[in-house]
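Re: beginner question about structure tokens

> Can someone show what the tokenized structure looks like for a real chain? I only ever see the sequence side.

Sure, here's an example I had lying around. Input first:
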Amino acid sequence: MNIGIIGAGSIGLLFASYLSKAFSITLYTRTIEQAEEINQNGILLQKGEIQSRIIVKAFPLSMWKGTEELSIIAVKQYQLRPIIEYLNKLDCIPKNLLFLQNGMSHLALLEKVDAAAILVGSVEHGASKINSYSVRHNGEGAVNIAVFKGKSTTLSEFAQACAEIHFPLTIKEDYYQMLVNKLIANAVINPLTALLQVKNGELISNTFYFSAVKKLFLEISSILNLEDPIKKFRDIINICKKTGDNQSSMLKDVKAGRKTEIDSILGFLLDEGAKQQKTAVNIETYYLLLKGKEQTRGEVK
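And the corresponding structure tokens:
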């Protein structure tokens, strides 16, 4: 199976590294310079004390024709709109498109995409980009995939091959519930760690931070109308314990002065709350504070 991966950030590099063991991978980058560096150096994958060099083909995004059996779109949510505009101008209708974005506001954009099958996924692996061709695998986690629309004829084959190379993924029946589960954790952990400048574990080890976690979760639970909030809250606690020494992706973005995915996470929840005429004081406050951090770094235009 030929697979194209659009985006060479931490997740794009991580997926290219592992999937190259079973598939023919072509990596499409934002810049010509990054493609040249990957072609020259390969991808350097750091996991613990072990470093591996993986050889893949890399081209700038302008070379992507959408002809692969599966294309994985691994860019940030706020980078998605120009990708979709480019995609809709392709000469062919892509077969299978897999979107790996945090949050849920991108679902409205996917309604406008023409493809045989559109898949969405949630990634729980910990990964950080070291440089343009190097990635560190910080922690293993789940990869969940579900069909958003259309019918995929290759998803089962893809999942089976991933299991054989020890990069397993789980096929979910309900894409909405799958994304909601990831959204809940992202909406609690990412904003608080980014604003407090702390690692995940401190959200539960510090009693005052933990009180903030509970207040934020209660608002999220109300807006999403969770059927089993106690279980969902325990899941957040377990994630904080399991990834206690990790920095959230949003904290890394804030430290690096990059735009965050706050619009697709808390922004989505604010929109949902408005539809239900529910107030969300904590969600709105954290949203505004993070948008303010973006503005002070010149990210908001």
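Each token stands for a local structural state, so reading them left to right follows the chain. DSSP finds twelve helices and twelve strands in the chain.
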